[in-house]
Amino acid sequence: MHTFVQRVASAANLNEYSVNPNSHWVNLKGSWTTHIVTIVVFRFLFGVIPWSTPELSWTLTNLSYCLFQYIMFHGIIGTPFEVNQGAYDNLTLWEQMDNGEQYTPTKKFLTVFPIVVFLLSTHYSNYDVATFIINFTAILIILIAKLPAFHRVRFFGINMGPNDYN
How far apart are CA 69 and CA 72, in angstroms? Predict the structure, then answer.
């Protein structure tokens, strides 16, 4: 029988002193700046489209950033590097960051920044109900994926590694 929600077990005990090259870059100096530059670039690209309004540009910016962040941090599992005998093989990048520790400065930034982008997109879309619902749905999906209660939790078998099925 298939379950709708399943918690993923780790293959090995994660050593707090080992460095995971797949997630270490997120804590480097330029990583936070990259997110800000990404928003500026998205907004510029959507703003130069001739038929685009500011409301549409900000909504597309928010949706693109949420999609980018979901795929990057919650959609891809594993690591391209052989580290810790497969301990990270069935984990997303969000779960690999800081060896799974919650509420680190980087995780706080990556949780607060999409909220700021959501607030900007809501403000510049003049609080239109339709764009608010679209933007709110996108931010809700991102924030639910980041909650500590959903650490190593998979819904409907999505992102299950080959070793996770019972």
Answer: 5
Report how far Cα 101 is from the mean position of its chain's Cα atoms: 16
Distance CA 119, CA 122 (A): 5
**134 close to 59: Cβ distance less than 8 angstroms:** yes
For the beta carbon of residue 158, count every other beta carbon within 10 angstroms: 9
pTM: 0.82
pLDDT single digits (tens) 2-32: 555 555 555 445 555 567 777 788 888 899 9
Angstrom CA distances, 130 to 63, 133, 143, stand at 14, 5, 20
Helix axes 105-124, 129-146, angle to 10 degrees: 170
- Average pLDDT of span 123-133: 94
Distance CA 108, CA 111 (A): 5
Instruction: Tell me how far the alpha carbon of residue 24 is from its chain's centroid.
Output: 15
Check pLDDT > 50 for residue 150.
Answer: yes
